Structure formats: structure tokens, C-alpha cells
Amino acid sequence: MVQNNIKLSSGYEMPVVDMGVWRAGSSVQNLVVEAVKLGYRHFDCAADYKNEKEVGAGLAKAIRKGMVKREDVFITTKLWNSDHKHVRAACEDSLKNLQLEYLDLYLIHFPVAIRHTGVGKTDSPTGEDGVLDINVTVSLETVWHHMEELVDAGLVRSIGISNYDIFLTRDCLAYSKIKHAVNQIETHPYFQRGDLVKFCRKHGIAVTAHTPLGGGSANTEWFNSVSAIDDPVLKEIGAKYGKSPAQVALRWGTFSTGRFLCLRGRCPAILLHHSEDIHSFSALAALL
């Protein structure tokens, strides 16, 4: 697997394609080792995925076996909503779980603070009325300045945001001392978010797509629409150029519109098949 990198506004390089571990389950330790073997060098984690310890064990095993060095991998994880008043403690907890001395990228998972339930506990508590118990005493600006302190302390190399719309992204630029290097959002052929992507590119913010193949089964269950890999238009384009529908969607997302990919799944080999050879798929550009 050939990894392409981009340089972030922080000055550090980030591999374009990463493997996300959401819903990867308890078998993620072996999955990480297998992914490293196949050439993955960027892993997208989060405290809320509840498997940082397993990811850390997998990384430690791969490093111990000499498959990779720490400086060769790029590790992303995320601050959960209930820890917005406990940024450093939450970061240190993630570092401990991942068996790392520093994070390559730390993101604010969602632009909302909820009631704190304890560092390491990624609950989403509700009030007596059954509504999410939002904490209105902490601002996103305050949270961001605590994120900046992590960079100053050497715990994190790059910081960023996730699931921020164009207005929140603009606001973060206004109050930041250290610019957010990344905005990780939902974006795919069904939900393109062109204005937000263009805004981020204009201001030197990398956009990573956490669902580059669309909503998957959620499309059918919630929206009564097909998954991107079953879309007849993508199938037709893929058949014409000898590519899979997934490769068409990824080529659209990454190399034609400036998004970078977070692939998720329980089989690294399948993810590798989806992402391989899309670099040379230049014929698609004429269709966009």
C-alpha cells in the first residue's frame, strides 16, 4: 500500500487515507496489527469508540515486532462531549490507553458540551426530561484554548475539530491562537457540503471524511435510499473504467474535491481494496 501524505497547517504530515476503528469491536487489537502489515499508517480513534486500550495494545505489538516505528504512524483521537471542562485529563487518559507519549492529532469530537460523568466515561447523560443534559457553562472558545495548551505542553502535535459547520469553523478561526489543522466531517457523494469544504481549503484546513462511502446501512434503514456502493450511477461509472463503486466514490471524494479519507471496517484487506489504485483514476475528473 502506497501512502500519500499532506502537510497540515501545523507543519506535520498526515497520511491521506486512515483506518477508523469505530464499531471495530474488541478484536481491534489484531485488526490494527493486520492493518499495519498491509501498510496503513494512520489510525482514527476516539474516546467514545471505547477501544483505545485495544488499539494501543495493537500498536504496541506492531512496534515491538519491528513492523513499524512510532514516528512512522499517525494517531488521531478525539475529546468526548462530557470532557469539555477536563481537556488535559481526558487527553492524558487517551494517551495512557493508547500507550503513547504524544498524539499526532487531537480533535474536538462534537461542538457541544454535556454533563461530565468522569474522565474515561463517554456517556451521553440525559436530564429528568429525557433530553440530553447540555452543559451551558463552558464555551467552545474556552475548550479550544485548552486544546492549544496541549500543544504547548507537548502532548499533542496538531489539533482540530470534528462535525463543525461552516459558521462554527469560521468562529474557531477568529478566536484561535493555533489554527485548527483539520475538520473531520460527514461528506460523500450524497452529502457533498461543497461550501464548507471550499471554506476549509481556502483557510488551509484539511477536511477528512469520516463516512466517504455514505451512510451504509443507515441509508436503507433511515432514508430509504441505497448505499453508495449499490448506487447504479457509481456502478455504471465503475464498470466503464474497471473500478468498484467504492473506488469511484473515494476518487470523487479525495482527489477531485480535496477531502481526505477515513475508512472504517473490520477487514483491513477489504478497505485496502477500496482505496488502492484510486490515485491513478484520473479519467473520473472529466465526469465531475
TrEMBL record:
Top-level taxon: Eukaryota
UniProt cross-references to SUPFAM superfamilies, sorted A to Z: NAD(P)-linked oxidoreductase
Sections of the chain in a coiled coil: none
All copies of domain NADP-dependent oxidoreductase, residue ranges: 26-252
GO CC annotation: cytosol
Site (Lowers pKa of active site Tyr): 78
MF GO annotations: aldose reductase (NADPH) activity
List of residues binding substrate: 109
Residues annotated as catalytic: 49 (proton donor)
Pfam family, one: Aldo_ket_red
Cited PANTHER family: ALDO/KETO REDUCTASE
Protein name: NADP-dependent oxidoreductase domain-containing protein
